Structures are given as structure tokens and as C-alpha cells.
UniProtKB/TrEMBL annotation:
Domain N-acetyltransferase: 10-154
Domain of life (superkingdom): Bacteria
Gene3D superfamilies xrefs: 3.40.630.30
Stored SUPFAM superfamilies: Acyl-CoA N-acyltransferases (Nat)
Pfam families reported for this sequence: Acetyltransf_10
Swiss-Prot/TrEMBL keywords: Transferase
Protein name: GNAT family N-acetyltransferase
Position of the signal peptide: none
GO MF terms held by the record: acyltransferase activity, transferring groups other than amino-acyl groups
Amino acid sequence: MITDITWTNKNFSQLTTNELYDLLKLRIDIFVVEQTCFYPDLDDHDRHPQTQHLFCYQNDVMTAYLRILPTGLTYPDYISIGRVVIAPCVRGTGLGHELMRVGLAQCLKYFPNDTVKISAQEHLEKYYNHHGFERVSDMYLEDDIPHIAMLKTH
């Protein structure tokens, strides 16, 4: 477990301008530029009053981010975690697993009675299995990238 990281969790109206810029830059740098996936990142889900934005900084650089979406926003019967991203400079350090552990704790805090469903890139299935997610669909293409639906088992 990484212990020298301070995690921040905010809804959209609590984000500073710099935090918003940094999280959008990190998401675009990875999902659009690195993965060459052109998709509408700004989907209005960020602004929902119950959406939670979880992130951390290291040396003044945002290095990890995810968002938690309330039931009904992505799935009618489930909350969801999405836009899970780790900066290239800290990959392989365990930060991704710490991000998911903290994210799931925030799910329990803000949505204690809800099941988590995700649309995961298929190659990350084992990563999500490690955190209690089980595959519940065949592979499908989302933005031309193989994905699978997964549910968090209790």
C-alpha cells in the first residue's frame, strides 16, 4: 500500500479551476492521445451533483484519477467507476491498485447500498478481478476498443 499519497475526492462544484484542468489534461493525454481514441470525453457526467472525482498529486502533477457516477447516470441499476487513469510516470508503482482501493472505499461511503458496474477495457480484466470485479458480458467494442462489462462482487 502506498502511504505517502494524499487522495482528494470532490464533486464538480468543489473542484478548483486548476484541478479541473489537470484531470481533463490527464484523461485526454491518456485516452485520446496515448490510446489514439477519439471520443467525447466531456459528456456532462462530470457535472452531475453526485458524481465524485477522486485524484492525487505527486510533485505538483496529477498522477491518478477516477470518477464515480451515481445510479441511473450510466446504468439504470448500478453506480459506476470510470475514466480510471494513471500517469505514465508512475505506472508500475502500485498506484493503480491504490487508486482502485480508495475508489471502492469512496463508493461505499457515498453509495453504501449500491453495486458497482464498470465498462472495462478487456485487457484489464485481471486488474479488475483483483479488486473483486467479475466479468458479466462478452467482449464489445466501445470507441473501437475491446471492452467487457464487470460487476463488483461482495
